[in-house]
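Q&A log
Question type: sequence-to-structure
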Amino acid sequence: MKPLFFWWIASVALIGGVAWRWLGPATPLAKPPAMEIHAALGAPTDPGFRQATTPRVFEFPADHGPHPEFRQEWWYVTGNLTSEDGQDRFGYQLTLFRVGLDSNPAKRESAWGASQLYLGHLAVSDVTGRRFHHFQKVSRGALGLAGADAGRVWLEGWSLARVGGTPEQPSLRLTAAQGSIELRLELNALKPVVLQGEGGLSRKSEQSGAASYYYSLTRLESMGEVRVGERVWRVHGASWMDREWSTSALAADQAGWDWFSLQLDDGWEVMFYRMRLKNGADDPQSQGTLVAPDGRVTPLPREAWRQESLGSWTSPATGIRYPSGWRVVVPEHRLELTLTPRLENQELSEAAIHYWEGAIGIEGRHAGVLVTGSGYVELTGYAASSP
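Response status: OK
Response body:
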């Protein structure tokens, strides 16, 4: 859902429970225990935050910036990259979350005081080297450590900045480094903003307020550098950006979601998310979007596609069992696709909420013609169903 569906990654909200430790003296924050996704994204305890309940008019570039009247939001970028010589392949993720700690914060005397918390996840899938690298960073929105405006969101040394283009078809600069990995990428939108759901209101369930405001940049021409260890590659490829903000997401009967962003080599993109109920069924509000090469957008209600898991993978770090490999069919649009993880292990096992977020390869047919592509999949809420 980043439309979620990633937006759900708002695991950022999870930090809300321990966030106040950051509002006192500048002492390190201990790594919080892993949380269930529902604990992070359930109903808000502060009634002062606004909820996403009705469609709104989006305004750019303002809506590229923060929305502090809502409890949580994120800036989420994933992509698939290839080295200049074609020999090496990488996937990457940078997600920056903002979490409001108080809907009506009082002015704090201390410069360290903050009413906003920022959390980030950075990951690189070194497909050729068969290694997955991931990191989490947390900081307060004070002293310039982290923050957001219409031109940039940053978390210490990680940032995503608008550097050109137009308000609805921007060019972005992504920079992030941690431990053994570093990304320096220029991202140029080849298509304008896509409003997901009902004019940008993406409903997650029939429960009032269980929704987000959500838009995407579905094809970003990408180029720059990737460092893994001591080696640096010049790379090019395609990225996807999602923006979401909300106050509550999951309803009481929901367990999590499967989210897919697919970029086909014939110029089409597909996004869909399956909201999973605790009883194993799909929530009828599960939905998606098909984007044509010329930018035309076609909504995909849940009944428009079929999704079948082809296998499973169990994490040696957390013991969580995830589906692994999928067959997706969109009959009306003559899409038949097989999705294969570039690496089986792309679980963010050190994150505050454990989830699988990974690069995939795509093969299949579109309108009777062979098609390939790349994409990303996010899987949340599987801990409770694992043995």
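Response note: The longest helix spans residues 37-41.
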